[in-house]
Design goal:
The protein is of the alpha/beta class and about 350 residues long. The chain has two domains: about 170 residues, Rossmann fold (3-Layer(aba) Sandwich); about 140 residues, Glucose-6-phosphate isomerase like protein, domain 1 (Rossmann fold), CATH 3.40.50.10490. The chain is about 45% helix and about 15% strand. The protein is built from 15 helices and ten strands. The strands form two sheets. The chain has a five-stranded parallel sheet with strand order 2-1-3-4-5, sandwiched between helices. The chain has a five-stranded parallel sheet with strand order 7-6-8-9-10, with helices on both faces. β1, α4 and β2 form a beta-alpha-beta unit. The longest helix has 22 residues. The chain starts with 7 loop residues before the first helix and ends in an 18-residue tail after the last helix. It holds the Pfam family SIS. InterPro entries: GlmS/AgaS_SIS (IPR035466), GlmS/FrlB_SIS (IPR035490), Pterin-binding_dom (IPR000489), SIS_dom (IPR001347), SIS_dom_sf (IPR046348). Keywords: Repeat.
């Protein structure tokens, strides 16, 4: 029998996200102040530094920056600074560091070094008094409140939203696409609950899963793989839909579960060919997102439709719940994943 007291913290923090998102959206003027400084400095390039779930939020921001701002963006490698003492020229570069705790030594060191090398540095964190905030020139408080569960949920979506509001304000936007996200988040959690439990029962004995998406949703596929691995110990690997067809599809067969993130827009549309291919190979496909109903899949989790650029804030919610439910179904406690702690400090 499933122990419903297990994972109580993770479950509560998943449920808290509509409030967190609504409150962060209401504070968008604070983020717009930071964006105004960025816009005045007119960066020619953007570097993003992060670890873990925050790294997936940074991947989302990379797409936002390249598509909405028409600026090149890349994911920084902190070890080039902390282990190899690299000192690149970063004049006219925006360096954004995302960290829920703001305490990882490598991210703090990378931010300090980037600032010395000429970059405009921005810290995006849930801990306003952290070393990271001290290291950066500017900072954004995601305001998610204390997160006690080891698996990041509300801090992840709050980081996504904060990065979106930053990029949107830099381009001169008003955050209009973000305004309904708190309400839509509640609707997403409520309407997906039954099918998520069905999916957990379906994949209870799965040994491996591929998660996949394109465009903005690639970040969601990556975060889903991490959540499934750290809470229920399911071997999950994330691929871009394009990369999946370039080789890894050879390993997909009747024993493979494929979780596809397919929200309405160009990224979701590009996933149809991918899912047709893996379905032909016998894979068990779970489609999640606002375009799920139109995809070839054995099981679908619908998500309310939004502008594609904010879809990742919603589409990850049922996947967090899937990780929670699957962990319970497999006899694990998602609040106590083996070998993990809330804050991981790397150099």
């Amino acid at each position: 029998m499933t122990d419903r007291t297990a994972g109580a913290r993770m479950n509560a923090e998943i449920a808290d996200q509509p409030r967190v998102l609504a409150e962060l959206t209401a504070r968008r003027a604070e983020i717009a102040d930071v964006a105004a400084v960025v816009a005045r400095r007119r960066p020619r390039f953007v570097l993003l530094a992060a670890r873990g779930s925050s790294d997936h939020a940074a991947l989302y921001a990379k797409y936002l920056i390249e598509i909405l701002l028409n600026l090149p963006a890349g994911l920084a490698s902190p070890s080039t600074i902390t282990l190899y003492d690299a000192r690149p020229s970063l004049d006219d570069v925006l360096f954004v560091t995302a960290s829920q705790s703001g305490g990882s030594p490598d991210l703090v060191a990378a931010t300090e070094s980037a600032r010395r090398c000429g970059a405009l540095t921005v810290a995006v964190t849930n801990t306003p008094g952290s070393p990271l905030v001290s290291a950066a020139e500017l900072s954004i408080d995601i305001g998610a409140g204390e997160e006690q569960a080891v698996a990041a949920t509300k801090t992840y979506t709050a980081t996504l939203l904060a990065l979106y509001l930053l990029v949107d304000a830099v381009r001169g936007g008003t955050g209009e696409y973000a305004l309904p996200l708190g309400e839509l988040a509640q609707s997403t959690l409520d309407t997906s609950a039954d099918v998520v439990r069905e999916a957990a029962a379906r994949y209870r004995f799965a040994e491996r899963m591929v998660t996949t998406g394109r465009g903005y949703s690639l970040a969601t596929a990556s975060e889903a793989a991490l959540k499934l691995a750290e809470t229920s110990y399911l071997s999950a690997r994330a691929y871009s839909g394009a990369d999946l067809l370039h080789g890894p599809v050879a390993a997909v067969d009747e024993e493979t579960a494929v979780l596809a993130v397919t929200s309405a827009g160009r990224g979701g549309a590009a996933m149809r060919e991918v899912l047709e291919t893996v379905s032909e190979r016998g894979a068990d496909v779970l489609a999640v997102g606002s375009a799920a109903a139109d995809m070839p899949a054995g099981l679908r989790v619908d998500v309310p439709r939004t502008e594609e650029e904010v879809a990742p804030v919603l589409e990850v919610l049922p996947l967090q719940r899937l990780a929670y439910e699957l962990a319970l179904a497999r006899g694990a406690d998602p609040d106590r994943p083996r070998g993990l702690s809330k804050v991981t400090k790397t150099r």
